């Protein structure tokens, strides 16, 4: 008698590049297809996945299979270990066995940008994502507002795919503000959102990361918080973004008049967290702060 193994929340999918579309100077959309991508769960919102990137001189990338794929990958010699980066799913079409991922073309020359600039139809890749056959919470979705909360969604270009996906799933009566800092004006993309959501694109040009986002978040928070909202400052543990991961997402979201979701460069997000929680007194249980990347440092899997 053959024993049926339980289905894990996540699995390794073998995928092939089906299409590559340059959306703007800073964004490229890659459409993947594969024989088993019809089993890729369409969870929407800010669903995170992992993408294995080719080693130098390779056109494709693979990962060990099975529930212990990560341990097997870590055990490989470094020169045989395909780099892994984390992305947000932009769209899933199970009936076509397709998955879209929008990639940011940073100027750092890292493995993700190098691959995104050279990706072409037929390239083979490995995706680690949610298995639709798993009957439960896959994890990897951090957008969890309390019912009735006004929304403040803000981030830099690395957060644009997640925020765009979140906005597409919001109920029609959702209200709030979306702030998106991008490198240049030509990076402004079509974004579908309910009528009660104000969307503001903030091209920074030659100015530094956060130069447009920080004042915009402060201004929006002041407008979205109702008069009389308690402003009791809360202590915020400092995080050394050079050595620690900035990632604070409440497991149980507290009912609050404002729910904030912020993601992007870790140093910028750390300062925004300090402003909203320590200075404006927002309940830490009603905010999600995520350092998607660190200026001057390579990402880690």
Question: What's this, in brief?
Answer:
The chain has 301 residues and is an alpha/beta fold. It has helices at residues 69-75, 111-118, 160-169, 213-224, 266-279; strands at 10-22, 27-33, 48-52, 84-93, 98-104, 124-130, 150-155, 176-182, 197-203, 247-248, 258-265, 287-293. The chain folds into two domains: 10-130, Translation factors (Elongation Factor Tu (Ef-tu), domain 3), CATH 2.40.30; 150-293, Nucleotide-binding domain of ferredoxin-NADP reductase (FNR) module (Rossmann fold), CATH 3.40.50.
Overview of the structural elements:
By secondary structure, the protein is of the alpha/beta class. The chain is built from five helices and twelve strands. Strands 1-2-5-4-3-6 form a six-stranded antiparallel barrel. Helix 3 links the parallel strand 7 (150-155) and strand 8 (176-182). The protein starts with 9 loop residues before the first strand and ends in an 8-residue tail after the last strand. The relative contact order is 0.16. The mean pLDDT is 88.
- Top-tier CATH class of the largest domain: Alpha Beta
Give the number of DSSP strands.
Answer: 12
CATH superfamily of the largest domain: Nucleotide-binding domain of ferredoxin-NADP reductase (FNR) module
How many strands, what sense, and barrel or not for the largest sheet? 6 strands, antiparallel, barrel
| DSSP summary: helix tally | 5
Number of domains: 2
Question: Which helices and strands occur, and which strands form pairs?
Answer:
Elements: E1 10-22, E2 27-33, E3 48-52, H1 69-75, E4 84-93, E5 98-104, H2 111-118, E6 124-130, E7 150-155, H3 160-169, E8 176-182, E9 197-203, H4 213-224, E10 247-248, E11 258-265, H5 266-279, E12 287-293
Helix pairs in contact: 4-5
């Amino acid at each position: 008698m053959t024993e049926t193994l339980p289905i894990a929340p996540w699995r390794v999918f073998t995928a092939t590049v089906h299409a590559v579309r340059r959306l703007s100077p800073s964004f490229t959309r890659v459409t993947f297809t594969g024989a088993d991508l019809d089993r890729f769960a369409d969870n929407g919102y800010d669903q995170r996945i992992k993408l294995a990137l080719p080693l130098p001189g390779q056109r494709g990338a693979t990962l060990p299979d099975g529930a212990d794929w990560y341990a097997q990958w870590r055990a490989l010699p470094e020169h045989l270990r395909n780099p892994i980066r984390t992305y947000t799913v932009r769209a899933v079409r199970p009936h076509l066995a397709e998955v879209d991922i929008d990639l940011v073309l940073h100027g750092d020359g890292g493995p993700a940008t190098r691959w995104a600039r050279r990706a072409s139809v037929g390239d083979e890749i490995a995706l680690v994502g949610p298995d639709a056959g798993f009957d439960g919470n896959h994890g990897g979705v951090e957008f969890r507002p309390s019912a009735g909360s006004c929304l403040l969604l803000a981030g830099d270009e690395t957060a644009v795919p997640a925020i765009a996906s979140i906005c597409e799933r919001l109920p029609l009566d959702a209200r709030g503000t979306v702030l998106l800092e991008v490198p240049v004006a030509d990076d402004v993309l079509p974004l579908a959102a309910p009528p009660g959501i104000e969307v503001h694109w903030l091209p920074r040009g030659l100015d530094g990361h956060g130069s447009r986002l920080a004042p915009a978040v402060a201004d929006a928070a002041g407008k979205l918080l109702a008069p009389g909202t308690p402003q009791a400052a809360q202590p915020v543990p400092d995080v050394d973004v050079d050595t620690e991961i900035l990632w604070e997402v409440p497991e149980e979201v507290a009912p609050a008049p404002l729910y904030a979701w912020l993601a992007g460069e870790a140093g910028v997000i750390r300062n925004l967290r300090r402003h909203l929680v320590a200075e404006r007194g927002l309940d830490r249980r009603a905010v999600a702060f995520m350092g998607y990347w660190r200026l001057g440092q390579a990402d880690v899997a």
